[in-house]
Design goal:
The chain is of the alpha/beta class. It is built from 13 helices and twelve strands. Helix 10 links the parallel strand 9 and strand 10.
Length: 336
């Protein structure tokens, strides 16, 4: 009997959310185990004989883990980002890493838009003021019309492209984007201006981050980047916390180098109770929940179940879901 282990199920919620996985594994006579691993040793012990591991990446899937799970063929990451999985090690040890590009694209667009609208219209500021017994009518930062603002997208993938349509067609904003890995034709098809990173910083009134975290993007929004942004500008992050140097962001907000921040992700999660961001009226915070939604969660669990069945029953590799595509050539060479 094949064995599948969900390594960190509490991170996604209760066991009742895994109904699809349970049904599909039972139907195909696959042993499904749910675990709450806290470190490498927990994972290695729990999944030593697993054929497939499913994970959120909490704790990360390290080289030590990958090199120790000799029976494991596939790692399925419940999400878009794969910075929590050592892709280089997975490729070296001929293990496919699956991820779920676009499973929550609409939710990410909605959430980023909600953060922007909240900040522009002083929503949280007004709400908290009223709850405290005040009536801050027409106070707070002076709102601007989106039709007069430039929205800059860092990254132009599955969530950024519909985001561009929302602001360009819906609010009549000017939209620019920076993504060196996207060809010019896609920019043209979406009628969005392609810009360099420095141009994005200098021209944008609002920057919304939609990029993966890797060696190139780590702390790319830092003191130098903030110094090039307008002092009236806003930054919104629904991607990964470490794309922003948080200490530099706090300094930029405190000094007035930039005006607003809307953050769903942080360098340390949960956020420290003494973090200065918690006391800023010009900052809106949410707890890494931009992906969250009825449809996105359904899609997430259906995709996980499908990828397991593809692997263990149908002997199919779903290329569009492979994060470490270099492994495909290696597997093909072994098979031939």
């Amino acid at each position: 009997m094949s064995k599948v282990v969900v390594l960190d199920y509490p991170y996604l919620g209760g066991l009742d959310l895994f109904k699809t996985e349970k049904e599909q594994m039972e139907k195909n006579n696959i042993d499904l185990v749910f675990a709450d691993c806290k470190n490498d040793e927990d994972i290695i012990t729990t999944a030593s004989d697993a054929d497939v591991i499913l994970c959120c990446g909490n704790p990360p899937i390290t080289r030590k883990v990958i090199s120790s799970l000799n029976n494991c063929k596939v790692v399925v990451r419940y999400g878009i980002g794969v910075n929590s999985v050592d892709l280089e090690a997975a490729t070296e040890y001929s293990k496919i890493v699956y991820f779920m590009p676009g499973f929550c694209a609409e939710e990410l667009v909605l959430h980023a838009t909600a953060l922007i609208m909240n900040l522009l219209r002083n929503i949280s500021y007004y709400d908290s003021g009223i709850r405290e017994g005040n009536w801050p009518k027409a106070k707070g930062y002076m709102p601007r019309r989106l039709s007069n603002l430039t929205v800059g997208l860092y990254g132009f993938g599955a969530s950024a492209r519909p985001m561009a349509a929302v602001f360009k067609n819906g609010f009549k904003s000017k939209v620019i984007a920076c993504d060196p890995f996207v060809n010019d034709e896609l920019y043209n098809n979406h009628d969005v201006e392609k810009v360099s990173f420095d141009e994005l910083l200098e021209k944008s009134d609002i920057i919304s981050i939609h990029a993966p975290l890797n060696k190139e993007t780590y702390h790319i929004f830092n003191k130098d980047a903030f110094s090039k942004m307008k002092d009236t500008s806003m930054i919104v992050n629904i991607a990964r916390g470490s794309l922003i140097n948080e200490n530099d962001l706090i300094e930029a907000l405190e000094s007035g180098q930039i005006k607003y921040a809307g953050l769903d992700v942080f360098e340390k999660e949960p956020i420290d109770k003494n973090n200065p961001l918690l006391k800023m009226d010009n900052v809106v915070l949410t707890p890494h929940s931009a992906f969250y939604g009825e449809e996105s969660l359904r899609n997430q669990h259906l995709t996980a179940a499908r990828l397991v069945i593809n692997t263990l029953v149908d002997d199919i590799i779903v290329k569009e879901n492979v994060a470490n595509k270099e492994v495909l050539k290696k597997l093909y060479e072994v098979a031939n």
